[in-house]
Amino acid sequence: MTTDAQPPASSPEPDRTRQAAIDRLKQDVLEANLALPASGLVTLTWGNASGIDRDWGVVAIKASGVAYDTMSTDDMVIVDLSGKVVGGEKRPSTDTPTHLALYRAFEQVGGIVHTHSTWATAWAQAEREIPLLGTTHADLCPHPIPLTRQLTEAEIDEGYEEATGKALIEVVAPRGPSELPCALVRQHGPFCWGRTAAAAVASAVTLEEVARLATLTTLLDPRSPALDPALRRKHFERKHGPRAYYGQPA
Q: I need a labelling partner for 98 at 20 to 30 A (CA). Which of 1, 47, 200, 213 fits?
């Protein structure tokens, strides 16, 4: 006997549920991608946002090289965590292996953004981590924004994007993605993440302002001291974690 709580094996309900979840994911990731040029973080097609549905084990990411001004959900490609395309007619972003490496490494990451935003990329090209100089930075992260190591020639030749993900994981894993919501890929640019694609965009917007402030601060005084540890921790914890009290209750 079949009950209402358990549809028959032949029921199309699981397929409909899965498709509805993927449609929501594609819409969320589209909105995250469109927020990048709107926030001044992307020039031409130099960036991408993705999101994951962990219940169904799929990731939505922008198709490679598509223009933002005509972008639609049709430009969101669905891949599984191995990188196999399981939905969409276009090629996914060339940075897809980097995104997937981060999703596989960090269960709490639900969205990822990569840009070549001016100020953060300048620090990456200078091969410098972004020092923690003020409370704006501490609101985002209680540590300097780390810089990945140099990739070897073999890594670049044999699997560049996957190796980029590995290098990011190496610098993020000791602290975790909640305390390090972004990092700089050496000579390349920033990657940012969060619990959702929208949260990853917010990290990217904040990082760009932090990078700009750090540049201006170090120009004014190259010897500017790091933020006091107590103040650093206070500003981070009032926005993040179990002791957060910034904003309104959910």
A: 213
4 in any annotated domain: no
- What is the number of domains present in the chain? 1
Question: Given 23, 74, 228, 246, which residue is catalytic?
Answer: 246
In a domain, 10, yes or no: no
**4 catalytic residue (yes or no):** no
Question: pLDDT digits over 149-174, tens only?
Answer: 999 999 999 999 999 999 999 999 99
Provide the b/e sequence for 87-110 (b: ≥16 CB within 10 Å).
ebeeebbebbbbbbbbbebbeebb
Note whether residue 244 is domain-resident.
no
Bridge partners (DSSP) of residue 145 are 130
Q: Which domain holds residue 75?
A: 16-237
23 has catalytic annotation = no
pTM confidence score: 0.92
